[in-house]
Each structure stands twice: as structure tokens, then as C-alpha cells.
């Protein structure tokens, strides 16, 4: 059916209205486009600031770990006052401990470096003459002949090492800046933590704010539990390594054991790194000592991975061994060493949040309920205590 237009033409009635987009459709399209642009902008900002965001995440975990210690100092030593002073004292103690650990490493290395520098001219003369262990090794491998025949090529290759050296220096400078930034961020997070938590909680209704506080406390407990458990496992590894190296007669047993304990803080690869260093040090001392250290680490790593870690983390983080391994593997693939360090606490936080959501939605009891001081599961019946003098009619209405 057609109708005349004001200009004398004809138009199909009813079709133009069907094909014209409605205002709701236009609004939906614009909303989707806006969300896509906002997501792209957010991803761009994250990629451009990923290093700073990494520092903030690491600082947050340190702040969560030190938060209970600062609270204890404030409550027991300063009489519930002077939080800034308590934070300063805790961080000063942390700096002293880190400086002591650095000194333990630096002093023996400086002494050995000085002694090696004094012996270096004699070692070079012995090597050139084919004397001593180094000279005999060079003679057997014909290394001196290779160096003499390829002197120009080696000099040219050495000249190209300036660029990697500059990259190493930039990496060291960036690492120092990162450590300083993490330290300052952790200090401010611990100092301003109560104010930030109160301000964030005030954005929600009182019941929701209380729930958020309890879930946040559970997440903080999982982080501190992971750190304390990891420190315990590393301490056990360091003590056992020291005993084995001392019995084998390896020099600097305490220094090597301390390095092994620090390296063992890194999941999956840390124990292997520490074992390689300990085996090399034992091999320099004697072959039987190296064999004994290799056997020790083969046995200990199996016990740590299958007995010690599941036992400790099941008590401190409440994660089963399968979840621990899967979380570490996925985090290593996504974020490397940093992912390995943060995998277990992040998995524990996710577990706490999901458990609370499930309890809130389904009303099921949990192993660690977070719904009241009496730790009553959400599915338990809620008994309302009514005044004894309340009228019977009001009691019936309330029922």
C-alpha cells in the first residue's frame, strides 16, 4: 500500500518505522562501544605502568605481612598510641635485619676477593707455564693454543661486551629504585592502613562493611600464614644444609646454608638454585663431599615437596597440595618468578572470597565461618532474644 508524499511521490507505509533504529538500541550500541574503549584504555594504562603496579603489589604483600607486627608493637609497647612510631620501629628493625644479612654475605666475599686478587698474578704465571690445577686443565684442553690462535677475535668480542654491561648497570639501578619504592610504599600502606580501611568500609552499608572487614581479615591471615610457613620451610632447609656441609667439611658452610635458605623462599626453582650453589662449593672442596651434598638434596627436595610443604601450608594457608601446584604453575607461566612468589597467597585469597560468597548465597556452613563473633555458620538458625515483658501480641507478630 502506498501513499502520496508532499512532493508528489509515493512511499511505502509502515516500512520506514520498522527499519528506523529505536533509541534503546542506539543507547545499547553506544554503551558497548564505550565499554570497549574504556577496556582498551585500561589495558593500555596497565601495560604502560606494569612495573609500578608490580612494585605496588609486592609492597601490599609486605604491608599485609608487617601489619600485625606493627599492631602488636602499638598495643603492647606504646599503649595503643603512636602508630607512626610503631611503624617506624618495625621498619628500622627490618632494615637492621636486612643489613645484617647483607653483611654476612659481603664480608666473606670481600675477604675472599682480596685474597684471590693477591694470588691472581701467581695463578696466571702458573697457568701460562702449565703448572698447578689451572695450568694442567689448560694444557689438557689446549685452551692456551686456542686463545693464541684467536686473539683478534676474542678482543673484538670483548669490545662488544660494553652494551650488555650497560644493560646490567641499568638493571641494577632499576632494581635499587624498585627496592626503595617498595620500602616506601610498604611503610605508607602500613601507616595509613587503618584510615584507608575505614574510609573504604564507610562506602557500604554497615552489614556489608562488617562482612568486608571479616573477609579482608581472613585474606590477611592467609597471606601472613603463607609467609610464616614459607619462612619455616626455608629455616628447616638452611639448618639441614648447614649440618650436611659442616659434616662434609665444606668451608663457609654457614654462608652457603644462608644462601640456600633465602633461595628456598622461591617456590619450585629456589631449592634447585640453592642446591646447585651448595654442590659446586662442595665439589671445589672434594668429590666425596659433592656426592654427599647431591644425595642430601635429592632426598630433601622429595621430602620438602611431598611432606613438609603440604603439611605446613595445609595448616597455615588451608590449601590442598593439588591447588598449590596448579596455582604455582599457572602463576609462573603468567608472571615468572614474581608469579611463583605470589601464587599461593593469591590462591588462598581467592579461596577465602569464593568460600564467603558460597556461604552468603547458599547459607552453607564453612570450615572457617566469618559471620559473627561466636563463629556461627550461616545455616544455623537465628534465635531472637525477646524481652520478657513484651506483650504476647507483639511476640506473635514477630514470629
- Placed side by side, the strands forming the largest sheet appear as 1-2
The tally of helices reads 14
Determine the fraction of residues in helical runs and give it as a percent range. Answer: over 70%
Summarize the helix and strand pattern as letters.
Answer: EEHHHHHHHHHHHHHH
Classify the beta-strand content into a percent band.
under 5%
For the CA atoms, what is the radius of gyration? 33 Å
- Total of domains: 2
Region (Disordered): 1-22, 364-399
Pfam families: AI-2E_transport
Protein name: Putative PurR-regulated permease PerM
InterPro entries: AI-2E-like (IPR002549)
Question: Could you please describe the fold and organization of this structure?
Answer:
It is a multi-pass membrane protein. This is Putative PurR-regulated permease PerM. Residues 1-22, 364-399 are annotated as: Disordered. One of its GO terms (biological process) is transmembrane transport. With 399 residues, this protein is mainly alpha-helical. Helix content is 80%, strand content 2%. It has a two-stranded antiparallel sheet with strand order 1-2. α3 packs across α4 (83-129), α3 packs across α8 (162-201) and α11 runs antiparallel to α12 (287-316). The radius of gyration is 33 Å and the shape is globular. The model is unreliable at 8-16, 371-375 and 377-399 (pLDDT under 50).
Amino acid at each position: 500500500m502506498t501513499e502520496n508524499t508532499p512532493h508528489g511521490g509515493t512511499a511505502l507505509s509502515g516500512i520506514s518505522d520498522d527499519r528506523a533504529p529505536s533509541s534503546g538500541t542506539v543507547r545499547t550500541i553506544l554503551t558497548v562501544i564505550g565499554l570497549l574503549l574504556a577496556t582498551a584504555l585500561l589495558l593500555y594504562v596497565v601495560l604502560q605502568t606494569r612495573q609500578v603496579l608490580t612494585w605496588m603489589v609486592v609492597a601490599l604483600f609486605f604491608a599485609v605481612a608487617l601489619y600485625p607486627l606493627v599492631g602488636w608493637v602499638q598495643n603492647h609497647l606504646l599503649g595503643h598510641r603512636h602508630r607512626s612510631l610503631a611503624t617506624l620501629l618495625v621498619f628500622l628493625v627490618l632494615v637492621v635485619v636486612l643489613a645484617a644479612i647483607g653483611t654476612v654475605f659481603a664480608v666473606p666475599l670481600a675477604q675472599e676477593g682480596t685474597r684471590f686478587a693477591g694470588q691472581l698474578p701467581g695463578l696466571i704465571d702458573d697457568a701460562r707455564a702449565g703448572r698447578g690445577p689451572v695450568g694442567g686443565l689448560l694444557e689438557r684442553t689446549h685452551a692456551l693454543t686456542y686463545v693464541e690462535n684467536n686473539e683478534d677475535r676474542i678482543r673484538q668480542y670483548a669490545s662488544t661486551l660494553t652494551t650488555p654491561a650497560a644493560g646490567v648497570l641499568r638493571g641494577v639501578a632499576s632494581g635499587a629504585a624498585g627496592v626503595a619504592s617498595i620500602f616506601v610504599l610498604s611503610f605508607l600502606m602500613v601507616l595509613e592502613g587503618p584510615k584507608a580501611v575505614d574510609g573504604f568500609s564507610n562506602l557500604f552499608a554497615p552489614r556489608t562493611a562488617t562482612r568486608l572487614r571479616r573477609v579482608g581479615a581472613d585474606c590477611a591471615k592467609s597471606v601472613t600464614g603463607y609467609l610464616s610457613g614459607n619462612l619455616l620451610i626455608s629455616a628447616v632447609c638452611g639448618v639441614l644444609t648447614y649440618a650436611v656441609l659442616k659434616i662434609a667439611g665444606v668451608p663457609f658452610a654457614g654462608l652457603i646454608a644462608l644462601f640456600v635458605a633465602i633461595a628456598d623462599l622461591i617456590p619450585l626453582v629456589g631449592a634447585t638454585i640453592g642446591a646447585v650453589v651448595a654442590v659446586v662449593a662442595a665439589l671445589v672442596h672434594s668429590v666425596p663431599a659433592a656426592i654427599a651434598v647431591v644425595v642430601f638434596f635429592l632426598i630433601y627436595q622429595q621430602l620438602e615437596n611431598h611432606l613438609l610443604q603440604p603439611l605446613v601450608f595445609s595448616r597455615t594457608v588451608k590449601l590442598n597440595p593439588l591447588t598449590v601446584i596448579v596455582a604455582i604453575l599457572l602463576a609462573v607461566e603468567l608472571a615468572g618468578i614474581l608469579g611463583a612468589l605470589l601464587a599461593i597467597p593469591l590462591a588462598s585469597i581467592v579461596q577465602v572470597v569464593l568460600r564467603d560468597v558460597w556461604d552468603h548465597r547458599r547459607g552453607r556452613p564453612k570450615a572457617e565461618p566469618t559471620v559473627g563473633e561466636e563463629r556461627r555458620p550461616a545455616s544455623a538458625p537465628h534465635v531472637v532474644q525477646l524481652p520478657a515483658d513484651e506483650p504476647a501480641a507483639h511476640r506473635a507478630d514477630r514470629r
